[in-house]
Specification:
- By secondary structure, the chain is mainly alpha-helical.
- Helix content is 44%, strand content 8%.
Length: 132
């Protein structure tokens, strides 16, 4: 009886993983659960961006490139970071782990937040700033 329950649990889990990654269903789940999951920033937090579309980072990269052209930041501030990580328990995101958005280097939001607090004490933020 116990082994049958375990087999049923495994089948249900694998089924939910597969179903939640099928395109029409994954878009609904992403919209409901991960609407603002994909967030990007530079090291100082002077550029922040939330990708509502979610799958590919082209929009974030294009906006960051225009930010770099407009503001001419220091070399360490001209690197785009993703501030979201791979969560193995978020099985509805498994389809996206192969996308290039995970090739962008990761930096924790807490370290960026500290740097942004120091930066805003010196000068105010401009139009590229979004409060998280």
């Amino acid at each position: 009886m116990k082994s049958k329950t375990i087999k049923i649990a495994i089948v249900l889990f694998l089924s939910s993983v597969i179903v939640s990654n099928i395109p029409p269903i994954r878009y609904i789940i992403s919209y409901v659960i991960d609407f603002s999951h994909d967030r990007y920033s530079n090291a100082s937090g002077t550029f922040t961006y939330i990708d509502m579309a979610g799958n590919k980072p082209e929009d974030a990269i294009n906006r960051f490139n225009s930010f770099v052209k407009e503001t001419s930041p220091t070399p360490e501030e001209s690197i785009l970071y993703r501030i979201f990580y791979r969560n193995p328990f978020a099985f509805w995101r498994y389809y996206s782990y192969g996308y290039e958005k995970y090739d962008i280097p990761y930096k924790s939001w807490s370290s960026i937040k500290k740097a942004r607090a120091q930066h805003t004490a010196i000068k105010s933020l401009d139009k590229h700033y979004i409060e998280f």
